[in-house]
Amino acid sequence: MEQNSRDNAATDKAAARQGIVGGLVYVFEQVMPDPFVLSIGLTVLVSLLAFAFAPHASLPTLLTSWYGGTFNILGFALQMILILATGYAIAEAPVVQRGLRAMAARVQTPARAALLVFPVVGICAWLNWGLGLIVGALLSREIAKRVKVDFAWLVAGSYSAWSICNSGLSSSIALSQASHGNALNLVEKATGQVIPLSETVFASFVFIPTVLVVVVMTAVFIWIHPKAEHVVAFTQPRTQSDAGAGADDDPHARHADPTSFAARAEQSLFGTLILLALGVGYLAMTWHAKGFELDINTTILIFLLVGLALQRTPIAYADAIRRAARQTGSMLLQYPMYGGIMGIMTGTGLAATIAKTFVVIATPATLPLWSYLSSLIITLLVPSAGGHWAVQGPFVLPAALGLHASIPRTTMGVAMAENVSNMLQPFWAVPVVAIAGIRIQRVMGYTAITFAVSLVIYAGALWLIP
């Protein structure tokens, strides 16, 4: 009788969790349209709000602002695509793949799987969000081939570890504010100053909760792993078109005679060595003259050089980038749309109007928290951090200036909330589950727990850590 009661209670909990997860999945799959379609709707909404509330709203101003914003952001859009692509190429390098397999071979239990996945994926995501995304999916597959673990639990764990990426070295929000002349460096446009990474990514109020999320969620995932009788183990997916697919899968690949000049040039290390010499030489010269510093371009250059060194030949690197490009299509469409929204908000004065509302309800101490809370909602509608900043930055930054609040803290409040809400917004989970070969519905049941825990950790850090 007692055993039946425990079984019934477990069944009720599972049903309740499935109900919550089912509701989330229904909203994002059946109610929420594709992010590109959603960006069109947001453009219409912002335009209507501008005509209703903005002080300078007129049709010519709106159209001019939209056009300018749409095309001024293209440089930044390419930078973000290169961040993903260069990280992808590193993750796909044969030496990295062998390393992942070697690490996976040492795992024997679900607890050890979590103890491996969280720090490895967390470090990779902190270095480069594209690298972390791919390493998480591939490492999960390699572990699941060898150990009986719940595969959805494992993939969700890797995605949860990846969630810290917007607090790392490839954070589009932090990097854009550290990059002189960047289209999305709204701080520099307003104050003439850039914010170095020492005040954002490496600041204690960002770095401490970033580490805490990885440590705490490792313990949480070990605790919530399903009992043996409820484990759904890994099964080989029907398709092999994952990150490890070869160049032969590319319909545009050229198959030259191995003895031809073209093939020898493609396989030669000479081209790689030239690029490595140029890149390392530039970094050495610049850092010697100005001291060590990172911005978007130097970050991309470092990832490019590392990927070239790991892939070794120019053709291997080019093939890796071609495969990475398959994941960037949605970004090509989204960034220009959100740039247009940013243009409308700033050009018509709508951003300034919203900022005045924040000035009324917030104080210098509470504005970063208000920035964080509003960002949680905006992330669900704008899943890309760069596009998100294009929408939210134009009104939270003027509010920070008006209140004399901490600009780095207000800025990173947006990025930290992006980390949290990504656990409910499946936009970035799609490539992970596609590579891993699992349905997203099962993964989201676990990432909802990460959302709740990281929500509290980041909010507490913004409020309590100086």
UniProtKB/TrEMBL annotation:
Signal peptide: none annotated. InterPro entries: SCFA_transpt_AtoE. Keywords: Membrane, Transmembrane, Transmembrane helix. The chain crosses the membrane at residues 36-54, 66-91, 111-139, 201-224, 269-288, 300-318, 338-363, 369-391, 443-465. The keyword Lipid metabolism does not apply. It comes from the Bacteria. It holds the Pfam family SCFA_trans. This is Short-chain fatty acid transporter. The gene is atoE_2.
